[in-house]
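This part of the workshop introduces the protein records we will be handling. To make this concrete, we reproduce a full record directly below.
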Amino acid sequence: RMPLSSKSFVQATAALLLVGLLALLSIVGTNIFLVQESQVHLDEVTEGRLARRAAIDLHDALLTAETSQRGYIITGDAAYLEPYASAVAAIPSYVESLDEILATNDQLSASVDKLREDVAARLEELQETLGLAQAANEAGAIERITAGRGKAAMDGATSFIDGLIISIDQHLADSVASQSNTNAALRVVAILGGLIILAVVGGAFWAIMNYTQELAKARAAVEEANADLEERVRERTTDLRKANDEIQRFAYIVTHDLRAPLVNVMGFTSELEAGVQSVKAYMETQAVDEADQAAAEARTAATEDLPEAVNFIRAATRKMDGLINAILKISREGRRQLKPEPVNLQTLAANSTAAVHHQVAESDGEIITDIRVNSLITDKLSIEQVLGNLLDNAIKYQHPDRPLRVEIRANHAPANRVEIEVQDNGRGIAESDHERVFELFRRSGAQNHPGEGIGLAHVRTMVRSLGGDITLTSTLGKGTTFKINLPRDLRSYLGSIGA
């Protein structure tokens, strides 16, 4: 297979960044448009419901006034006048509410003027007949009622109200359907956008890992070269270090540039979530007629579908943020300046053991050290992090059926090198995963602990930056032994590569 060159890596990275930027702009623009459309539909639904309520209240008040007035005329009982007075007092406010709600509709606004006249005529007729009845002129009151003027006014008002309710119901159904379509489109755009961005990030990670693997293979070839080719090895190693620095820079650039659009997506997601919560809260306070399918669908969209879509976007962006942070962590470590200094392995191992003593003691475990190397010159922080990661790994993946036992050993090795071993009796690693666990974002076995899969990849990166290598031997169910081979003096290694 042809290796991935620096030029093709840059081109692939630039293309992925461009696709990610276009996808982000499309998502943001479409989301803004769809949210605005959804708000318009919601306003229409709210206005329609208010108009419908006012029309029904007006009709009920007219019927109450008519019924109470006639009850009084027939029985002469003054108790009938109480609901009559309440209804007559409320009717003007209902008419004004309808007038305000329908003011923007020229056609209906003109009809409201006719309604106002009919209502006034009906109230006038009711008051006149009531006055006659109170004056004991029942015959006159009945004659005024049978004249039909009040009935005509009532019929006109009723006809307008019935027509208005039918029109509002149809408009509400259309608005709810439009809002449902808008919500569905918003959900689809959010999901597709999230998938596209994840694909872009995945492609960037693939390019980085592929390039890193090519560098690892090249470095392995240098290590296997004949000792007589020392000058050639030195030149090749220098090229590799430059290439490694380049990949670290590219990794930092890729993840840094991806973070900016990701932050925008997370910000807009928060705004979208706040909007959805407002819609959800409003819809939950509204009574929904189970027979009204459109209203039920609107309630479901606002209270279930939209929150589900927002949660999906939120989970996707959190996952993406974790992956970007993992890449940045390795990138920063690779760019850190190493500081060779004398390191007492016995003391360092004791400090690392003490740091995790309480975790080991909780399961009646133990850590045993056998350090037969007095000291070496290397980067102390890197060695501390390597041992810390391996001990954390042993604790995290200890076998549930037995107390944890960890042994840390250090011995001299040929060619002025040191070999450090960390052996545990934990769950072990399947043979097929022995190399896989050192790869970025790869994990082995049952994943009952949180993590991004960068621990051992980070360890290998640090060990190799110190001029060494790390391997493992393991039997599934019995335990794992990590072997670290390092130069005794890091300065000689850095000098050989021109660092």
Q: What stands out?
A: The longest helix spans residues 149-223. The CA atoms of residues 112 and 131 lie 28 Å apart.
